[in-house]
Amino acid sequence: MTGDITIKALDKVGAEDAEYLVSLIRSIPGFPKEGIIFRDFMPVLADARGLDVLMRALEAALPVPADEFDSIAGLESRGFLFGPALAHHLGKGFIAIRKAGKLPPETIGESYELEYGTASVEIETMAVRPGERVLIVDDLIATGGTAKAGADLIEKAGGKVAGFSFVMGLDGLDGLAKLGDVPSSMLVSMPA
C-alpha cells in the first residue's frame, strides 16, 4: 500500500519497482468536473523506468495466458498509448476502439454512461475477424461503462472478449462487476 493506492498485481515486478511506478501516478482533484479526482498516469509514460515497469507488470499480470487471445484492443485514449507496445511485445495485433466520430464511415458504435456523463465509442467494421479472441486494455476502470461498451463492440463485430487488463481501478464504483465473469486484472486500486 502506498498512501491511498493499493498495489494489486503490480507486486509481480517487485516492491521497489511497484513503489516507483505508483509514485509517478498523479491525482488531480476537480477534473474534468468538480467532485471527480482525475488519476493521471501520463508521468508513467514519460519516465523510461516507469514505462519499463508498467510494460513488465502488464505482461506479468495478464488475466489469461497470451496464447488465449489473438489481439489487443485499446480504449481511447490512454489504452492507445501502451496497448500497441504490449501487443508488439506479445506478438499480437492491435485494434483501436475510438471515441465516436474519429473514424471514417463504416463503423460499429456503442453508447455508454460514465461517472460524469455519456459517451460513445466505435471500431471499424472490419477491425475484428470472426471468432477473434481479444484482450481489452485501458489505463483505468471506474464505473466500467467504457470497458463494457468496448466489449460489446468486439462482440458485435464477431469477436470474443478474452479478458480485460487495467493499470488502475477506482474502489467503490464496481466497474469490474459490469464486465461479468470475463477474466480481469488491474495493477493498482485507489479511492474514487
Structure explained in plain terms:
- This protein is α/β, with parallel strands linked by helices and 192 residues long.
- The chain has one domain: Rossmann fold (3-Layer(aba) Sandwich).
- It has helices at 15-24, 42-46, 48-60, 78-90, 145-156, and strands at 6-7, 26-29, 37-40, 71-75, 93-99, 107-114, 117-124, 133-141, 160-171, 184-191.
- An eight-stranded mixed beta sheet has the order 1-10-9-8-4-5-7-6, with helices on both faces. Strands 2-3 form a two-stranded antiparallel sheet.
- A hairpin with a 7-residue loop joins strand 2 (26-29) and strand 3 (37-40).
- It is globular, with a radius of gyration of 16 Å.
Which features characterize this protein?
alpha/beta, Rossmann fold, two-stranded antiparallel ribbon, Adenine phosphoribosyltransferase, Ade_phspho_trans
How would you briefly describe this protein structure?
The protein has 192 residues and is of the alpha/beta class. The chain has helices at residues 15-24, 42-46, 48-60, 78-90, 145-156; strands at 6-7, 26-29, 37-40, 71-75, 93-99, 107-114, 117-124, 133-141, 160-171, 184-191. The strands form two sheets. An eight-stranded mixed beta sheet has the order 1-10-9-8-4-5-7-6, with helices on both faces. The chain has a two-stranded antiparallel sheet with strand order 2-3.
